[in-house]
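Notes, p. 3: input format for complexes.
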Amino acid sequence: MDVSTAISQRSSVRAYKATDVEEDKLKKILEAARLSPSASNRQDWKFIVVRNKETRKRLANAAFGQSFIGEAPVVLVACGTEPKAIMACGQPAHTVDVSIACAFMILQAYELGLGTCWIGAFNEDETKKILNIPEHVRVVAVIPLGYPSQPPSQKFRKSLNEILCYEKYE
Ligand SMILES: Cc1cc2nc3c(=O)[nH]c(=O)nc-3n(C[C@H](O)[C@H](O)[C@H](O)COP(=O)(O)O)c2cc1C
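Output follows (170 residues plus flavin mononucleotide):
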């Protein structure tokens, strides 16, 4: 599969089969995060792989009861380990860096036939407690991972005309 196909065909998956994710596939997905770019190549991140069923359920509860998170055989929790680093443009580096790594993982997962859904609606304090994450570390995203049990949903996107301008902001 080429990158264009993965970008155009991927969609969020909110229903998963119980089938486990093979270790070699998981490793390839995590490798996509490891190889992704980061500000000044700092790589200030940590990715937690959760397979334990009880922990997955607790993470789903911490995500305001989005139960499909607990149904996925793997939940990835992506953290920024140095959240104080602010780039010259004013944006926190960890949010941008970890988000890029997550995007790479999501596309890699799709190529391998696996579904994901970016979860931003979670209670960070609760999530940190469940996983023993240190106080100073920030949780950027929670990503359930598994084989989809439903066909892909339709994509709704603004047209390029609506989101594009040339030479200056209009
Ligand atoms: C930053 C971010 C946070 C999101 N949070 C959630 C979430 O908490 N729960 C959920 O079901 N989907 C969540 N999504 C998925 C979006 O709803 C989804 O990507 C969007 O509707 C476009 O659909 P698609 O991914 O199928 O193309 C999130 C996506 C992003 C990028």
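The radius of gyration is 17 Å.
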